[in-house]
Amino acid sequence: MTHRRVMTMLLVALLAAAGGASAAPSDTARREIAALIGALDGSSCRFQRNGSWHDAAEARAHLQRKYDYLLRKDKVDTAEQFIERAASQSSMSGKPYRIACPGQPEQTAAAWFGARLKALRGR
Known about the structure:
Elements: H1 3-19, H2 27-41, E1 46-49, E2 52-54, H3 56-72, H4 79-87, E3 98-100, E4 107-108, H5 109-120
Helix pairs in contact: 2-3, 2-5, 3-4, 4-5
């Protein structure tokens, strides 16, 4: 096999591998994710993770750290991915996060953030 052919095959393999990588979130996705995190931070809701309840500011800081990590690893492109990969469950224990807001039934964080995203998009 010629050197040129080997180089061509390597380039094709690299491009194919890169095609599977995800792109950075769009400006719209970044705004939606910031709004979701802000909706929790601006609320009087409590956030449960791994059996312990946290106030909204602590929850915001935790979710922001998870989001920042996912951004560095190029693992979040959409608000839906943020909800699924950062805001739904503990990456350590696998336990679902829960949210309790005054005057509302306690619910999973996935449902809470999903409803906020739907409202944000006007659906």
